[in-house]
Write a structure and sequence with these properties.
By secondary structure, this protein is an alpha/beta fold. It is built from seven helices and 16 strands. It folds into two domains: 57 residues; 224 residues, Rossmann fold (3-Layer(aba) Sandwich), CATH 3.40.50. The strands form five sheets. It has a seven-stranded mixed β-sheet with strand order 8-7-6-9-10-12-13, covered by helices on one side. Strands 1-3-2 form a three-stranded antiparallel β-sheet, covered by helices on one side. Strand 2 and strand 3 form a beta hairpin.
Length: 304
């Protein structure tokens, strides 16, 4: 596989048309399959790199269930390399962070190692200097600022953020320590495709103001004997969306908030990777009463 620089320009409001223009140019000029990837280098500047794939990698059309902007959307395209078993198109992930991004790092590493059938294609943050943003830049992952504030005047509006994520062809959005409320425009654009991880067993110790060490201090002060991370779908409020997965962590008699936080975080890293793998393999199903479940990879008849 080889890469070459193809195109760059300023187009904060026209990501998708530029992307399609390149695709049209490729289809008329290259006998091999080509895939343009978009990298935002500064507030509005966008450059594209082109990756060529051998013509031996053919595309065939089948009907299957694929989680693109909805866990129930039907797609007609999977990719199959000649002489090998068929494989599902890798999902494209956007991760949102406000701090160090340890869950983001775990997910990205799992994608690189192949345990997740997807790739983090863009990072969104409300703090351009946070550790998660620096890690993304070091790994060559585009970084987007959102929202626009007095402290971050280069941030995007909600409508522009939707356009940019569409330009990246994002399938799922994963919140990993992102402390801003997700706007309604984004929730409507990505129904049943935005997820958050919270460091307590929701619905306990959730809602506005419950984040970081505040959660663990509240858990210990309550006398609760168990805590642990929760992954849930995102709706218009803080921490009220449908619960998808949880992991129980004991609260020990002499725990400090820092000690409890460290044990919960270890389970967060594992759980978020497991759930992301299930998302990228289309293993999320919905019970008749609207409760989401994860189908076991080893035994499709089992759910958790």
């Amino acid at each position: 596989m080889e890469s070459q620089s193809l195109f760059s320009g300023y187009c904060s409001n026209s990501i998708t048309p530029l992307y399609k223009k390149i695709q049209n140019r490729l289809s008329s000029s290259s006998p091999s399959l080509a895939y343009p990837s978009c990298f935002i280098r500064s507030k509005h500047r966008v450059s594209f790199k082109l990756q060529h794939f051998p013509a031996s990698e053919r595309m065939r059309s089948v009907r299957r269930l694929e989680c693109t902007n909805s866990v129930e959307k039907v797609s007609n395209v999977v990719s199959e390399k000649e002489g090998s078993q068929s494989w599902v198109k890798r999902k494209r992930l956007a991760v949102f962070v406000s701090g160090g991004g340890s869950n983001f790092r775990s997910i990205n590493q799992a994608c690189i190692e192949g345990s997740v059938n997807g790739d983090v294609v863009v990072l969104v943050t409300n703090k351009h200097a946070c550790g998660g943003a620096q890690y993304a830049s070091d790994k060559g992952i585009p970084v987007i600022l959102f929202p626009k504030t007095k402290d971050e005047p280069g941030g995007l509006s909600s409508d522009d953020l939707v356009k940019v994520l569409r330009g990246f062809e994002v399938d799922f959005i994963l919140l990993a320590g992102y402390l801003k409320l997700i706007p309604l425009e984004l929730i409507r654009a990505y129904p049943r495709s935005i997820f958050n991880i919270h460091p307590s067993l929701l619905p306990a110790f959730g809602g506005k103001g419950y984040y970081g060490m505040k959660v663990h201090k509240a858990v210990i002060a309550s006398g609760a004997r168990y805590s642990g991370p929760t992954i849930h779908f995102v709706d218009e409020q803080y921490d009220t969306g449908r619960i998808l997965a949880q992991k129980v962590v004991p609260v020990l008699a002499n725990d400090t908030a820092e000690e409890l936080a460290a044990r919960v975080l270890q389970e967060e890293h594992k759980l978020y990777v497991e759930v992301t793998a299930a998302l990228c393999e289309d293993r999320i199903v919905w019970r008749e009463d609207g409760v989401p479940l994860i189908r076991s990879k080893e035994n499709p008849e089992e759910y958790y």
